[in-house]
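Help!! Second protein's tokens look totally different from the first
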Amino acid sequence: MLGDRMRRGRPDDGRTAAVLAAVQEIDADLRDGLTGRGAASAARRLRRLLRAGAVVLADLDARPVAVAGQDPAPDELAALLAGVYEHAGSVHRPPWVAVPLIVAGELSGALAARDADEAELTPAAALVARSLDHAALRRARARITQAELRTLRAQISPHFLHNALAVIGARIRTDPDRARTLLNDFADYLRYSFSTQGDYATVADELQAVQTYLELQRARFDDRMELTVRMAPEILPVAIPFLVIQPIVENAVRHGLEPKPGPGAISVSGFGEGPLCVIEVEDDGVGMEPEQARAILAGGGGGRGGVGLANVDQRLRTVYGPEYGLVIETARGGGTKVVIRVPKFMRGVTTR
């Protein structure tokens, strides 16, 4: 096993720490899969870990995607890999030995080494396969997140678009300066909502889009909507999933304040809570039964913005983990508060 040579060395030679560090580094090298840019680095680390003369990572086309050490003769490697792929088992052709890479139950490639112990090569291949499985899961998660974002963009409310244009049109004659400002706000809102930037934006960017949206809505309410926006400066540069806050705010306006007679108020606030970034969207609208809030997050909600909030909730859980979904606090006639809590910093969540 990989630890056998470690045990044969001196107890204080640091081999255990070196092995553990190499395992972490190999996993990082293979973040982009077997054909990613880190494969060559992974092969070099595996060679050192196995103390082999050479190491080859090969794909299912029997091509070496990464080689560390002396390249094997093409015919020699082809025969070695053919045996591995034919039987999905290890093949020993001195001085080379090769073992299959089995990822999620499927043959995905091979690991070959020169002058290496087959008993150590097998767990090394399992390590590589586990890293490749992690990489595949990350790619799948990214595809799901992107698909959910495309779905959310496709659901930009026609109701809002129609009303915003109607408000702007109504003010062209009575208040042309305000109409011009609102039209610019509307253009900014659309530009941000359909931006082709990455999957993440800063809290500051999201907040600016939300303020633009709320100004358009306030004009539609004839300025009867009271707006309060409070954000602690410390969280403004925090990266969060793109279009997370706006759907919550839209839900508050459309389903909280629109059905309420008379004026209404909505507040958007954010602050740090230890390692967490907390964002709250609260309205004093009609509210709902707690059971309906649970149904909304499950993807239902009887027409009260269930799809948009469920989409945001699912994206948060996909990116940060199951404990980081939305929290809805509400009561019939008592308004609604939606709370987002996410880590301020998380690997892979960046606007760069």
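Here's the second one for comparison:
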Amino acid sequence: MSTKALRLGTRRSKLAMAQSGQVADAVSQVTGRPVELVEITTYGDTSREHLAQIGGTGVFVTALRDALLRGEVDFAVHSLKDLPTAQPAELVLAAIPEREDPRDVIVARDALKFTDLPRGARIGTGSPRRMAQLNAYARSHGLDIETVPIRGNIDTRIGFVRDGELDAVVLAAAGLNRIGRIDEVTDFLSVDTVLPAPGQGALAIECRAGNTAEDTALIAALGELDDPFTRAAVTAERSLLAALEAGCSAPVGALADLLADGQIVKEMRLRGVVGTTDGSRTVQLSTTGPVPGTYEQAMALGRELATEMLAQGAAGLMGERAH
């Protein structure tokens, strides 16, 4: 490989720049080449509509992928939960590094925990998945909350709480970790309360699918940053999402985690949930099997759980479908 700088395509948000900067440092180490960030504005960054209205799927991704295909950047970094489940043949996910904390968190006024919020508390989130699960939990535990749809970056969302407009907002732990603001969290939501979005907390490093010697060498170098357990887990989660035929703005939560006996990893458990945004109806199931050793095995784990969820009526709860 040459010694000229590699161009990394990234969204312009503070969070995207922070996570792309971390990837750039790691890529520099494995390739011995400098990496420069190329800022790209996506439709999801400029639109003020709610994600569920603009479809969610791919709104933060398409412009980055177009830049890759045009040769304007050499590779791109995405939040994996933003990626559509169908992978274009011309592009490859060269690496999925070790996952950050996948949990959702609350940032609330007066350092309150979720269960300590006052009656009628207004909780902001742009995610139908979070709304569905928070409302379902509130219904089953006698809590009185109102979920309020919001958009905006981390500063904007936390600002709604600081200004007194909302009692709390829900964010991803991984994002706050990556920009050094995890100390502002007032409550970490257990995955038993709110399952994260498929792929939440993981990054995807994408590049062209190797039409040239340069592309092939880059794929091999980026592959050194891949974490096989994270890749297996998020592949199973995204397979579930795809089999439910749901876009990434649909109210679907999924998490695959490893079950260990002491130091020895024995099995992978995949949990999935889908529900109406008011929390009145949910389908939540799990399956456990051997840790997938191949892409196909991970895909099969997701498809198997999706089939069970559809048999329990999951399709009727999603509202927005991908087709």
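Reply: Different proteins will give different token patterns, so don't panic. The chain has a mean pLDDT of 89.
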